[in-house]
Amino acid sequence: MIQTLKNAWKVEEIRKKLIFTLLMIVVFRLGNAVPVPFVDRTILASIFDQTGGNILGFMNLLSGGSLGNFSVFALSIYPYITASIILQLLTVAIPSLEELSKEGEAGQKKIQQYTKIGAVLLGIVEAIAVVNALFANAIVAKGFLEETIIITVIVAGTMFLVWMGDLITEHGIGNGISMLIFIGIVSRLPHTVISWVLGIFSGDVNILAGIFMLLLTILIVTGVVLIAEGERRITVQYAKRVVGRKMYGGQATHIPMKVNMGGVMPVIFASSLLALPQTMGLLIGGGFGAFTDKYLSMTGDPGIYIMNVIAVVLIILFAYFYTAMQFNTVEYAKNLQQNGGFIPGIRPGRPTSEYMTKISNRITFIGATALAILYVVPTILSAISGLRISFGGTAIIIVVGVVLETFKQMESMLLMRHYKGFLNK
Predict the structure, then answer these.
(1) pLDDT tens for residues 364-382?
(2) Nearest to 140 by CA among 217, 39, 56
(3) 411: enclosing H helix or E strand
(4) Distance (Å, rounded) from C-alpha 121 to C-alpha 44?
(5) DSSP character for 36?
(6) What is the spatial distance between Cα 416 and Cα 379, in angstroms, rounded to a whole number?
(7) Cα separation of 136 and 151, whole Å?
(8) In terms of CB atoms within 10 Å, which of 99, 103, 112, 391 comes out highest?
């Protein structure tokens, strides 16, 4: 990876993309420090001291501390992610949206517009809930105008991040939305490490537990890399055919089928949905709040076990969902047949599609199950050991996944540049 980064920095085009991405990251971090007006920081800090171990602490981790600061980026990009989940599920359920998704770039742009409109609407709802329920005690000015200003500022901050994510995707390195989540998590890493070290020195944290969690983190990183790099190669043979005076085909190649085609998106989507019950509990309060705190939170007992079971199911479902979206076996089999390709021992057409679907389902189950295990194990072990970690399985999977995807993109750019150089000679 270090060598790839060095090689990429030497190429002017890629260097500009890297610099642009770094500048966007600086803007993101500066925005996290810009406070929303009419908020008492002392009361805000006390709210997080009382509820820091539950969903607020988790949301604050993924937002890079912007929620804890109640900055202009307080909602981060999660209204957009939630809207994206809803739109992608509706694409499967509504035929008109499914047809729109198959219209190529124009259809995708239209779906992106719908997603952004949904993000604005969800952002307004979430902002109203934050102002009037979640952080109501921290708001020092209760007038209609002041609340409208706060809501407008944080919704505008969310949409600014969405726009910035699109800019990173277009002009920078990696997926912009994933990159912003990555930076948010990594920015909290020093705070987590310091709290571990201070806890060990003060005696609040067992040093053996700290070493164990460090080794577990290394194992999770290794596991995520293995899942991301793992693939099943299906042999494809092309029949010989004569076009004019030349003979084409006859060679053998393979179809690489990734063990985890969805990357980190199943984990991000599952985490977003898992946050909903406890967020609603914090907003509504009362008996419902107590119920969600006990049964539907990662800090409750038996809530931690219930939520982890739900997390496993959601991650597996989203992994299959993303695989189905990215790997259309029917179209793949049709393209192979049209180009004279076939899988040895499998008839072209529908049998080929069914064979690839069977292989895809098997390896997706293995990859999704492994991803789900890596997600839940740190949470359960940290609860058993008493070592409070905010940089858990979710964060590690997202961070490692984004790093791998980003470096793969840089390697692709370098490879493309070498091809261009070869063709120009």
Answers:
(1) 999 899 888 888 877 777 6
(2) 39
(3) helix 393-424
(4) 25
(5) P
(6) 41
(7) 12
(8) 391
